[in-house]
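User: Let's play a game. I give you a shape written as tokens, and you guess the letters that built it. Ready? Here's round one.
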């Protein structure tokens, strides 16, 4: 196998290793120091951040770069194809990872059969807003109510009623920074909401995995004729947040209600690569 040459490097930094790496490896931070990147290790977020510019061992300091051209005389590439962080530690691949929960991170593109341009972007934010499903809220039709000035959504007004959000995590997600369920209070000042989540990969048993439940609590800023919210960020823990998994978030009315909490939507701020 030919030794990989690194040319046209940009964004060069010095890093300290926490394991063995080879010249040309994609590297990630494991919360201690720098190791081989691994698309299959979502639990510790070993997404690629740099390319190792030298071979090294744990404790060594080496140079690394965000952008460079790799030259390999063994012609391992097909020209003009996308490169991904591989589920094989340290490697890049022309094949999109296919295992459930692999982080799909594009790291560059091939130039020819011998050259590849690596250009690793830093993590970025992605915001989404999901409206509640129109399914029944357990005790009454989920088509909801319209409140002046034209807020719409399912209305929870007693214990036992639920509202639901269904979706799918981005395939390049590495974290959820914030997740809020937004409500419009229609005469409600004391009602409490519990929030649960179930996630599941395609072709997997539908019982799936669950995150840490959001215990029943009154929404923040709850008051009549105000928009209030439940911060449910903690439910998207390592057990629940998995790239490319399907999810259902359930907002469960608990305790006594004096009015209605009209469910507007689920706001999420992802960190993606």
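Assistant: Ready! My guess for every position:
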């Amino acid at each position: 196998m030919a030794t990989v040459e690194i040319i046209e490097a940009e964004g060069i930094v010095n890093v300290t290793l926490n394991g063995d790496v080879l010249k040309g490896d994609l590297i990630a931070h494991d919360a201690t120091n720098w190791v081989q990147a691994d698309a299959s290790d979502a639990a510790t977020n070993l997404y690629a951040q740099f390319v190792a510019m030298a071979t090294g061992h744990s404790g060594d300091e080496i140079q690394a770069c965000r952008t460079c051209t790799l030259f390999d005389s063994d012609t391992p590439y097909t020209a003009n194809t996308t490169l991904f962080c591989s589920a094989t530690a340290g490697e890049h691949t022309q094949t999109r990872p296919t295992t459930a929960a692999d982080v799909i991170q594009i790291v560059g593109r091939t130039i020819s059969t011998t050259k590849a341009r690596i250009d690793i972007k830093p993590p970025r934010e992605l915001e989404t807003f999901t409206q509640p499903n129109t399914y029944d809220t357990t005790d009454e039709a989920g088509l909801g109510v319209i409140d002046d000035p034209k807020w719409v959504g399912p209305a929870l007004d007693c214990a036992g009623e639920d509202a639901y959000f269904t979706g799918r995590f981005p395939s390049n997600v590495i974290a959820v920074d914030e997740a809020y369920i937004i409500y419009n209070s229609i005469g409600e000042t004391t009602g409490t909401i519990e929030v649960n989540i179930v996630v599941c990969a395609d072709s997997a048993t539908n019982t799936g995995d669950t995150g840490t439940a959001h215990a029943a609590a009154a929404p923040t800023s709850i008051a009549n004729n105000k928009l209030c919210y439940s911060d449910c960020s903690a439910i998207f823990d390592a057990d629940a947040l998995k790239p490319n998994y399907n999810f259902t978030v359930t907002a469960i009315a608990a305790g006594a209600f004096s009015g209605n909490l009209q469910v507007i939507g689920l706001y999420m701020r992802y960190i993606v690569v």
